[in-house]
C-alpha cells in the first residue's frame, strides 16, 4: 500500500533510482518530475510538503517510462529554449542548447535591419522562429516551414501558446509552395546525422523522429538540396545559415561556395564547437 510521503524523501528516492538506472543527472531530473506534478522548487527543496498517493502513482509512471529510455522532455510535455517554454512530445525534435547558436546568428543579421522576410526551415517546434520573433527589433515577416504532421502539430501549438504572428507552412522543404519567397534570411536546422551516427544513437534519441535526424549516409543530403533550392528565394545579400553536426563545417562551407554563396562564416557554440555555417547570396 502506498503511503503519503514527504516531497523531500521522494526527491531523494527518485534521484537515486534514476542514477541506479544509468541516468547521470538524477537530482535534476527528479526535481523536474516533481515540479511537473505541481510542486514548486521551494516546496521540493524544503522537503516537508506531503505528496498524495495519486501524485506518487503519477511519479512512478513517469519514472518507469524514463528508466525505459523515454526522453524527460516528452514526459514533461514541454521544454525551455532561449527563454521560451515550448510544448514538445513524440514526433517532434526536442530543442537543444546547440540550436541557440543558430538563433544568435539570425539576430545578429537582423540587427539594424528594420524590415525583413525570414524563414525558419525545418521548423519542428518553431523554436528558432519564435526566439527570433521574441528578441529581434523590427517589423519582420517570419515563416516556419515543417513537413511532418506530428511536428507541425507542435509548431502550431507553440505559435498559439506564444501568441505569435509567424506564418506556419505545412510543406516539404524539398518541394515548397510559393509563399516563402523574396527572403532576406533563412535559418535551418536540417537532419544531419550520418548512417553511422544513427546506428550509435543513445536510447533517448531513438525516441525522436528519424526524419528529423537522418541526413543521408554522409549527413549532407539536405545541405546540398536545400542550398540549391532555397538560394533562388533569397534576395541578393540575403543570408542562409545552417546548424551543423560536429566536424561538418568544411563540407557545408564547400556546398555553399559551390552554389555561389559569398562571405561564408562559422560560429562556435559555448563549448567551442563550430555549430553554424552561413553564407550570403
How are the SSEs placed, and which strands pair?
Layout: E1 5-6, H1 7-20, H2 26-36, H3 41-46, E2 50-51, H4 53-67, H5 72-76, E3 78-81, E4 84-87, H6 100-110, E5 115-121, H7 127-135, E6 139-145, H8 149-161, E7 167-169, E8 183-188, H9 195-199, H10 203-206, H11 221-230, E9 234-243, H12 249-258, E10 262-268, E11 274-280
Parallel strand pairs: 5-6, 5-8, 6-7, 8-9
Antiparallel strand pairs: 1-2, 3-4, 9-11, 10-11
Describe this structure in words.
With 281 residues, the protein is α/β, with parallel strands linked by helices. 40% of the residues lie in helices and 21% in strands. It has 12 helices and 11 strands. The strands form 3 sheets. The protein has a 7-stranded mixed β-sheet, with helices on both faces. The protein has a two-stranded antiparallel ribbon with strand order 1-2. Strands 3-4 form a two-stranded antiparallel ribbon. Strand 10 and strand 11 (274-280) form a beta hairpin. Helix 1 (7-20) packs across helix 2, helix 1 runs parallel beside helix 4 (53-67) and helix 6 packs parallel to helix 7. The longest helix is centred in the first third of the chain and has 15 residues, at 53-67. It starts with a strand and ends with a strand. The mean pLDDT is 94.
Amino acid at each position: 500500500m502506498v503511503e503519503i510521503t514527504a516531497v523531500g524523501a521522494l526527491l531523494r528516492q527518485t534521484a537515486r533510482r534514476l542514477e541506479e538506472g544509468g541516468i547521470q543527472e538524477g537530482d535534476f531530473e527528479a526535481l523536474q518530475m516533481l515540479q511537473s506534478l505541481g510542486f514548486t522548487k521551494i516546496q521540493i527543496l524544503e522537503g516537508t510538503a506531503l505528496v498524495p498517493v495519486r501524485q506518487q502513482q503519477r511519479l512512478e509512471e513517469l519514472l518507469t517510462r524514463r528508466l525505459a529510455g523515454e526522453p524527460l522532455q516528452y514526459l514533461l510535455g514541454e521544454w525551455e529554449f532561449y527563454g521560451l517554454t515550448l510544448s514538445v512530445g513524440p514526433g517532434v525534435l526536442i530543442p537543444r542548447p546547440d540550436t541557440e547558436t543558430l538563433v544568435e546568428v539570425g539576430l545578429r543579421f537582423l540587427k539594424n535591419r528594420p524590415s525583413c522576410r525570414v524563414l525558419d526551415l525545418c521548423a519542428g517546434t518553431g523554436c528558432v522562429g519564435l526566439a527570433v520573433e521574441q528578441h529581434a527589433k523590427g517589423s519582420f515577416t517570419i515563416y516556419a516551414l515543417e513537413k511532418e504532421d506530428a511536428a507541425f502539430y507542435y509548431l502550431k501549438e507553440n505559435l498559439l501558446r506564444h501568441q505569435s504572428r509567424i506564418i506556419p507552412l505545412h510543406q516539404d522543404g524539398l518541394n515548397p509552395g510559393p509563399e516563402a519567397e523574396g527572403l532576406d534570411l533563412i535559418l535551418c536546422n536540417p537532419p544531419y546525422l550520418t548512417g553511422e551516427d544513427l546506428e550509435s544513437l543513445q536510447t533517448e534519441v531513438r525516441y525522436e523522429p528519424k526524419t528529423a535526424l537522418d541526413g543521408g549516409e554522409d549527413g549532407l543530403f539536405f545541405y546540398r538540396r536545400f542550398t540549391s533550392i532555397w538560394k533562388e528565394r533569397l534576395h541578393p545579400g540575403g543570408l542562409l545559415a545552417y546548424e551543423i553536426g560536429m566536424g561538418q563545417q568544411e563540407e557545408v562551407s564547400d556546398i555553399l561556395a559551390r552554389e555561389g554563396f559569398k562571405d561564408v562564416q562559422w560560429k562556435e557554440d559555448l563549448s567551442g564547437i563550430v555549430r553554424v555555417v552561413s553564407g550570403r547570396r
